[in-house]
Amino acid sequence: MLTDSTGAQHSRQRDLASETALRGTPETENILQTVTKREKEQAKGMKGDLVFRYLTTCFAFSILAILALMLYEMTGESMPSIRAFGWKFVSSSDWDAVQGVFGALPYLYGSVVSSVLALLLATPLSIGAALFITEIAPARWGTIIAPLVELLAAIPSVIYGLWGVLVMAPWLQSTVQPFLIEHFGFIPLFQGAPYGVSMLAAIFILMIMVVPIITSITREVLLAVPLSQKEAAIALGATRWETIKMAILPYGKSGILGAAILGLGRAIGETMAVTMVIGNAPNISLSLLSPAYTMPSVIANEFAETTSKLHGSALMEIGLILMVVTLIVNGLARLLIWSVSKSANGGAA
Amino acid sequence: MMHGMAYRKAKNHLMNLVMLACTLAVLIPLGLIFFHILKMGVSSLSLDFFTQIPKPTGEAGGGMANGMLGSLIMIGGASLIGLPIGILGAIYLAEFGGSKVSTVIRFGADVLSGTPSIITGMVAYTLLVVPMKGFSGLAGSVALALIMIPIVLRTTEEQLKMVPGSLREASLALGVPFWRTSLKVTLRSAMSGVLTGILLAVARVSGETAPLLFTALGNQFWSRDISQPMAALPLQIFSFAIAPYEDWHKLAWAGALVLVTVMFVLSLTARFFGRSRHSG
């Protein structure tokens, strides 16, 4: 850009010099005209560049503006509820739209329990699957399974929910839950009646949904492990498992952690599938068999038909909490994954 | 490491089996989901599904034609809003942006794409539904656009960065203004990759349900007016799946089959574009 404009200035000075020297004859008039025409075109191009620059800058910064606007709107709309309830909003479990009393504890509890347990189940499975795809299976299997897993990560959550509520929940109700009650009923986690739609159903569906995400990111992290790292272990006579344990996993540790946290972010914000299988009852119960409720679910169910301004504001505050939590969780995950890809690049160079 | 070779080999085999079991545990539920969508979807799909609107409660038959039309309109609207912002923003990041500013914007885009989609619905509600005093297809489009922008921005930027600098320099040396170089040379040579990103973004929003719950709201009848509540295929799948009627469940399965097919076609087309760029 800079060199362009100085170049144009130089040529303009030269043109001006020749202009004064050649003024008068008809041929030079002609030449002058074409020169000024070209100059005008150049000036137009430069003006175009300026407009283009401003335009693209505006659009790029609009991302930050959107984020700021989202936070501003959510905070502003939550203010009435924040003022009315303060910290009691997150410590109380009274949620009564008729009385105008709102406490979000059951939703917080449901969100935390469902996503953390889903993640605890999903992470080892995903790491195992990613290791199998990258290290054990023949390369051709990997090229089939890996895109398949990525396609699965793109299935809309409403379809997981449809399958969850019409296939999985009835199956849980008729086989898994009676089995758990009969054989493990002495543990508080598995007490109560088999409802089908329950915390357990939500945990399972979330696990099924986040597994493809964690698997595909873990796979990328594992592929970034330098070959020399593996070769060193193999040269020392390590078996395949020992290579994985000593050379590959330690190297990809923080990247895999990042993948798991990214899965957590997805699980916390997951709305449709959970709403369809969790039973939507604001209980705080130790039993995984009883219905529960999560933050996104209560927004999905109640936001379109709020009974009062305060009700809407309370739901907004839940949304704000949800947004801040996912912001922190995703930011953390990105930093971890970035740090790995950076160090991998550094190692290669 | 003081164990004998036989023990180490046995452990190796055992862990191989564990990893195989993990892979199966990942693939089996997903396989089951596909199996059920295919089985239930094919048996419930009929021509009526594509031409009829839902019948009142209790009557058999009907389809989701209005939902498919509504989804098309809203995805079109979201593309009109989201694509220019995403693509031009990406040009800024790839061509002008200083490294610090770009990092902040990139991070912002990642954060935006990580926010739960129901939040974009809430924001579109306060920005459009409240001032316009009613649910509308337009609000749905805006909510979907908020999801598209970061995806398009990031993929387009990656593609623009892969265009060799010599191509830009050649165009500039011929006296082509920078803005025309960006649009006609840089963007055009990255076009197949950019298209891949656009298709993936469209595929992503075509299945989104949560942001539409309190923006487009849904509609039981034909709806073409974007200032009015509008039907959408994912919304219909949701409300029919949780309704207690067997007939409606069938329609929901048929809808799921159509949605998954559309998304797979989009993803495969995207992959095709992505591949043709590498070979060409």
Q: What this model shows, in words?
A:
The complex is a heterodimer of chains A (349) and B (280). With 349 residues, chain A is mostly helical. Helix content of chain A is 80%, strand content 1%. Chain A folds into two domains: 2-85; 93-348, MetI-like fold (Orthogonal Bundle). Chain B has two domains: 5-44; 51-279, MetI-like fold. In chain B, 77% of the residues lie in helices and 0% in strands. Chain B has helices spanning 5-44, 47-51, 65-96, 99-114, 117-132, 137-162, 165-173, 178-189, 191-206, 233-241, 246-279. The mean pLDDT of chain B is 90. At the A-B interface, helix 2, helix 4, helix 5, helix 6 and helix 7 of A face helix 1, helix 3, helix 4, helix 5 and helix 6 of B.
Task: List the topology elements.
The complex is a heterodimer of chains A (349) and B (280).
Chain A: H1 2-22, H2 26-85, H3 88-91, E1 95-96, E2 101-102, H4 105-136, H5 139-153, H6 157-184, H7 199-223, H8 227-235, H9 240-269, H10 272-277, H11 295-302, H12 309-348
Antiparallel strand pairs in A: 1-2
Helix pairs in contact in A: 1-2, 2-12, 4-7, 4-9, 4-11, 5-7, 7-9, 8-9, 9-12, 11-12
Chain B: H1 5-44, H2 47-51, H3 65-96, H4 99-114, H5 117-132, H6 137-162, H7 165-173, H8 178-189, H9 191-206, H10 233-241, H11 246-279
Helix pairs in contact in B: 1-11, 3-6, 3-9, 3-10, 4-6, 5-6, 6-9, 7-8, 9-11, 10-11
Produce a short descriptive summary:
The complex is a heterodimer of chains A (349) and B (280). Chain A is mostly helical. Chain A has 12 helices and 2 strands.
How many discrete structural domains of chain B? 2
For the biggest β-sheet of chain A, the strand order reads 1-2
Total helical elements of chain B: 11
Cα Rg of chain B: 24 Å
What share of residues of chain A is helical?
Answer: over 70%
Structural class of chain B, please?
Answer: mainly alpha
Distance between the amino and carboxyl termini of chain A: 31 Å
Let me know the average pLDDT of chain B: 90
Low-confidence stretches of chain A: 1-8, 345-349
The proportion of strand residues of chain A reads: under 5%
CATH class of the largest domain in chain A: Mainly Alpha
SS field, number of helical segments of chain A: 12
User: What's the overall geometry of chain B?
Assistant: globular
Extended strand count of chain A: 2
CATH structural fold name of the largest domain in chain B: MetI-like fold
How far apart the termini of chain B lie comes to: 51 Å
**Tally of distinct domains of chain A:** 2
